[in-house]
Amino acid sequence: MKASVVILNWNGKTLMEEFLPSVIKNTPPDIAEIVVADNGSTDNSIAMLRDKYPSVRLITFDRNYGFAEGYNKAISAIDSVYTVLLNSDVEVVPNWMDIPLAVLDASPSIAAVQPKIRSRRNKKYFEYAGAAGGFIDKYGYPYCRGRILSVVEEDNGQYDNPVDILWATGACLFIRTGIYREEGGLDAGFFAHQEEIDMCWRLRSRGYRIVCTPESTVYHVGGATLNVENPRKTFLNFRNNLLMLYKNLPEKEIKKVFRVRYWLDAIAAVNFFITGHPKNAAAVFRARREFHRLKKDYLTVRMENLQKTVISEIPEIRRKSLLYSFYIERKQKFSQL
Questions:
Q1: Cα–Cα distance between 31 and 259 in angstroms, integer?
Q2: Phi and psi of 7, rounded to 5°?
Q3: How confident is the model at residue 145, as a pLDDT?
């Protein structure tokens, strides 16, 4: 089989009933199999899949391993050349796989590809987590073509050119199965959030390319698992972002970046507090404490990443502060950066 479309499910019966039919309808069975990896659901997902969608390959786990380890376990059972990580709340359209697979076929240097991601709620607009390809700034703040911080653009074709990016969204990520395994896959310690950015940064630093192919478009609901104001999500985002920086930053940059991040995180916590989200403010400080507790466990991982790095100055990492550009220079669209 050329590709496996792997959907990770945790109590997502309702989502799969809504979105899985589009995946089955628009995924050619001679090119790709459809796999649902179930993370210990308790909502009758498995029974529903077996009853309504017997053609879908089902992999079941004994408990919820999170996004990262759930995919690692699922992909360990995949034999296809390519794997597509696809969220359970994504609607796909005819020919959605054609261009991404053709790009991977054309160049072995390309490890991963994402299509354009539009919002399922408002299809004229990009979707927050992915849009038309992901980047980060020097302090670890992610952004996309089509989304800077909280500002999401309407898609008027302004980012329709294929482009090399730093990270491809885990909502719809095409990747070479062999490279995924060889280079360590997603970091299971992250559990969920920003693990795909960490993995793509690792791949990019080791000489692989990550590409967005906006000729293909899918539609993502987004935020279907944890609400944006959920303190658990805040904790995971801040902790994982700090871990990602520690794992991947060059030695010459790490001290300066972490000095600046101390103050930026403090400002973020104060902002959460004064805007009426004290639990999110506490989650920022809890994330920093957890990061410092885990640092020693990640030292060998950091050393391995540094040893395998072949590109130290990655062009897809912005050298200026995204926050400064957004709040001070008022540059709130990717095209203005």
A1: 49
A2: -105, 120
A3: 98
Model confidence at 226, pLDDT cuts 50, 70, 90, reads very low
Residue type, 322: L
* Whole-number Å distance between alpha carbons of 308 and 236: 27
The 10 Å Cβ neighbour count of residue 92 is 23
pTM of this prediction? 0.95
Q: Which residues, 6+ apart, have CB-to-CB distance to 307 below 8 Å? A: none
Q: Residue 228: its pLDDT value, please?
A: 52
Q: How many helices (H) and strands (E) does the chain have?
A: 11, 14
Q: Which of 178, 197, 285 is nearest to 248 (CA)?
A: 197
Classified as helix, coil or strand, 189 is: helix
- What is the C-alpha separation between 300 and 35, in angstroms, rounded? 34
State how far the Cα of 84 lies from the Cα of 78, in Å rounded to an integer: 11
Q: Are strands 134-137 and 317-318 parallel, antiparallel or unpaired?
A: parallel
Residue count of the chain: 337
Question: Which pLDDT tens digit goes with each residue over 303-314?
Answer: 999 999 999 899
Q: What is the mean pLDDT of the chain?
A: 96
**Distance set, CA 5 to CA 51, 112, 173, 250 (Å):** 20, 14, 10, 34
Burial (CB count <10 Å: 0-12, 13-18, 19+), residue 254: middle
Q: Mean pLDDT over residues 73-87, rounded?
A: 97
Q: In what order do the strands lie in the sheet with 134-137?
A: 151-152, 147-148, 142-144, 134-137, 317-318
Tell me how far apart the alpha carbons of residues 193 and 244 are, in angstroms, rounded to a whole number: 11
List CB contacts of 34: < 8 A, sequence separation 6 or more: 4, 5, 7, 20, 23, 24, 27, 55, 56, 57
